[in-house]
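User: Hey, quick favor. My workstation is busy. Could you predict this chain's structure for me?
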Amino acid sequence: MKKTLVISDRFPLPEKFGSDIRTMNLARYFASLGSVDIAYLSDLRSGPVQAQGAGEDLEKDDIFSGKYCLQKLEYPVSLRGRFGISVRGFPYPVREYSKASMEKLFALIEFGGYDYVLVRYLRNTAGFFGLSQVAKRKVIIDIDDVLTQSLYDTLFTPTNNALRMLFRTINKVLLAYYQTRCVTVFGACLVCSEKDKSDLWGEQASESIFVVPNTLGMRGSGELPMESGFSRRHVLLFIGALHYQPNVSGLLWFLESVYPLYRNVYPDAGLLVVGRCPLPEVIEVCARTKGVELHPDVPDVIRYYKDCRAVIVPLLEGSGTRLKVLEAALLDRPIISTRKGVEGLDVVSGVHFLEFDDGPSFCEAYRTLSDETTYDALVTRAENIVRQEYSHGALSTSMGEVVTYVDTRRASSLAFSSRSHAPAG
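Assistant: No problem, here it is.
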């Protein structure tokens, strides 16, 4: 029996959000190999806060044998402080753990008897380069969102300050270097798509980088009865974390540049905006835009799928693969998306989804859904490819390759360590 430690931002139950779904998918894989513990940040909305009201469902889904709360140090407010921490080896958004949490993590990783340590996100690896060589080999970093690509600028508020702009440029270089070190030093690194792997490392990608696709969590085709959305009125659905800058930017762009034309063509049109922690600008624009309903922090999104005719994914930046696309495909709703919104997924415009890049192309794409045969065909083909390419079986196959690789490298490290410490003669 194997033993795994998962290190995460949030306690991922109940799994309402994309980050939690991926964490639990990976944790369930490791649970199939043996026991799983979790260490998560107590300075975020996690653990006990999320668990309130979850009741029996949380208890049923909770696969973690041990739970450890961690804390991180506050990131410096001043530009000088931020520059200083970056050149010390912690480029933003990598944040140092508190001394007590770092000591706890080191003790767990070095002496806790874990075969694998799964770290969700690069930003949670601060200090890990100080682990022993053998311990480093059992660390698996799930890079997930690749911050050094189009997501990087979304980490910061806009500025015209020359010094801040210079710091951000230097920090990006340091973050890219930090990312490369993680790939070369630790046991393995995971990304969500072949495109992320290619964009980051090209044809010379390290053998320690593995593509592990996103899959849906506890929801699957057939588990939630859905009627066809074809006869629904012209209501669209946008789902996503509303404090996550790519979602916010994409939604605001859609409301300003696309939605007005859509409303002109379909006067009874509406848009349901569903997500957690909406930023003030999201609340404001939804409140003043006719036909738009904002539903923040809802306990379950299924009713909103039932009320819509199509799902929109108006993303202009980001990386990885979109769980919202997979969910829509399994809940019998056609997807209208920008190219960036489906990037990393093996889908074809006009076959599995409808592509748009401005108001006219959106209206043209939506108009094709007036034909019921086209509507149903899009839904069916999208569901089929998700079940084939983004199933739990696909994740298990990918992770099987990861753990085999990590086991082999770790065995080599142990053998080398034994030879190095063997007495002479």
